[in-house]
Amino acid sequence: MNNTDKNIINFHYYFNDPNLHEIDAATLLRAEKAFVDYVQHFARQTGIKIDLTIAPKEKGGLQDWFFAVVNSPAFETSGTVLISIVVSKFISPTPKLPKEERELKRAEIIDKIKSGRYTEIDIDTIIDGDRKMKKYKNEYFKTLRADSSISKLGTSINDGQEAMIPRKEFDKRISDDETENEMDEDAEILIYSLVIDGHSRKMWSGVYDGEMIYFAMNDTKFKREVQGGGIEIKENLVLTCILKIQERDFSESPNYSVEKVKKYQIDDNAPIRFYHKTDIPENQMDIEQLFPNSMG
User: Which of 13, 158, 223, 262 is the most buried (most CB within 10 A)?
Assistant: First the structure.
């Protein structure tokens, strides 16, 4: 197969009533959206272009068919392998990993995947450590679990043998730490709007990970500098910061808050490190900026 061949992904929903060939519309739409979001987020994170289309449905329980095409030159001969690994991770039990293991060499692994020089373990590491993919997978299996008419799920790729998941196994694919707080230690946010009024309770907003988010600015020193005019904002402002992320229910956006600003960049100027008294000075210039009144 070359990189433009269609890989056929089949989700086969079996029902308690063998004569039933219909499914609740809300169940199917939520399940389809969760799977599409899962694949599209993986594609965005790795830079791989994956096109998903819906194929005609067939009877026999209810079968949901997707065509997946990997349109990246690096995957000229391995697009099917990549799709197989991603779908397999989607339907497999979700492992519980320590945070430090989830974040291990993520950037390096993504570069390997983009070039097509990856292993199945590399894909595992990226998917297992991605909070959004975990969220989309949770939503898919929570949706199936909520529909009492569904007895099991069968999944196949390119008309291969179906992998069967009975209803009692759905819970193993739902992570129990979905609402944990996570910290992105080097988040980059392109600021869209900031709050100058020191008494306002409005949220700041900006683009993070390709999406518009609203967040609380909990770095009081940086907030005072901006509101007091110590940092003059002209056009584009990009923050490098510690971002706290708390996932909520699938239907709601996460709660975001900037806990500490590390650097800021205005327009095309060089990034400027933003100092806090808890920072460890690296040189004389750091000492002068951290403790301006201590110098003679």
Answer: 13
Residue 163, both tokens:
């992998």
For helices 120-128 and 106-114, give the axis angle rounded to 10 degrees: 130
- Report domain extents, the chain: 7-173, 181-294
The helix-helix angle for 106-114 and 25-46 (nearest 10°) equals: 90
CA angle 285, 289, 291 (to 5 degrees): 115
**What are the angstrom distances between the C-alpha of 248 and each of 155, 167, 213?**
28, 25, 14
- Residue 91: CB partners within 8 Å, gap ≥ 6? 153, 155, 163, 165, 173
Q: Is 209 exposed, middle or buried (0-12, 13-18, 19+ CB in 10 A)?
A: middle
Interval 114-132: pLDDT, tens: 888 888 888 888 888 787 8
